[in-house]
Amino acid sequence: MSTAFTLTLALPAGFRPQDILAFHRRDPQHTAERVGDAELEKGLLWRATAARLSLRFTAQQVHADLHVDGTVPDSDQALLAAMVGRMLGLSQQVEAFEQRHAQHPQLGALITRHPGLRVPVAATPFEALTWAIIGQQISVAAAVSLRRKLILATNLRHSSGLRCYPGAEQIAALPPQALRQAGFSAAKTQTLQAVAHLVAEGAVPLDAWALRFPCEQAVREQLLAIRGIGPWTVNYTLLRGYGWLDGSLHGDAAVRRGLQTLWGRPDKVSQQEAENWLAPFSPWRALVGAHLWAAQSSTAY
């Protein structure tokens, strides 16, 4: 038995589908995502069952299909609509941000280069959190390689043949040595599996938070209590998992490089300098960080 859902959502004027597609095109080997000029196929777990999400962009619309290798309730149609809207950043208040800061002497130039920029969000908060842990203190290319090896280690497949990004239960069940052999450090292995166990047991309710967001403070407090998770990981998870645009990404090396270029500085920008500069842009500090990423490279973004 299988279940299929189909829906169409309207897109705002000036929507940039290529930003979304570029985010999911990070892995050149297309391990769990297949990305074309105007479409995305992504393998994921839906209620712990292998599923394939397909997004096809047309003028001012996105057409979404979810094919689950199992039976799920009809009410999941609403969950699918919420997930797709979150992934595409449809509720992100980019228009208000641009109206407020388009004339800023430094940031204004970046807004002009990338009008309408939204932050692509991962399919699930768990994927965002694990991606943040994987990416701690390494390059994007190295993080993509580790992510690929994690997907291969769990080896979950949809009936279409597309591999699926694993859930908490699958990562928690992996022997630590499997992650070490995949290239994960001892510290990342410990953090990743600790998080997986907490999510699988319901102690860290990532999906429930998504249904009642904004609840940024609850997310922050519980995640910071986990060994191996610091402010950058939390702010990145809030951004990529929930679309929360006010996390200060001053700890992000690419953000500081972007500021160095923006300011024409020969020397590196410190975390404190970056934090001080970002502060007045609340409640859009993370969106400013996304503009700094986009100014450097669509890959880093």
TrEMBL record:
GO biological process: base-excision repair, AP site formation; DNA alkylation repair
Domain of life according to the entry: Bacteria
Pfam families (alphabetical): AlkA_N (PF06029), HhH-GPD (PF00730)
PANTHER family from the UniProt entry: DNA-3-METHYLADENINE GLYCOSYLASE (PTHR43003)
Name listed for the protein in its UniProt record: DNA-3-methyladenine glycosylase II
Gene3D superfamilies, sorted: DNA-3-methyladenine glycosylase AlkA, N-terminal domain (3.30.310.20), Hypothetical protein, domain 2 (1.10.340.30)
GO molecular function: alkylated DNA binding; DNA-3-methyladenine glycosylase activity; DNA-7-methylguanine glycosylase activity
Organism listed in the record: Comamonas aquatica DA1877
Reactions that this protein is recorded to catalyse: Hydrolysis of alkylated DNA, releasing 3-methyladenine, 3-methylguanine, 7-methylguanine and 7-methyladenine
SMART domains per UniProt: AlkA_N, ENDO3c
Keyword Transferase recorded: no
Record keyword Nucleus present: no
Ranges of residues in domain HhH-GPD: 134-297
Domain DNA-3-methyladenine glycosylase AlkA N-terminal: residue ranges: 8-124
Enzyme Commission number(s) of this protein: 3.2.2.21
InterPro entries: AlkA_N, AlkA_N_sf, Alkylbase_DNA_Glycosylase/TA, DNA_glycosylase, HhH-GPD_domain
Cellular component terms (Gene Ontology): protein-DNA complex
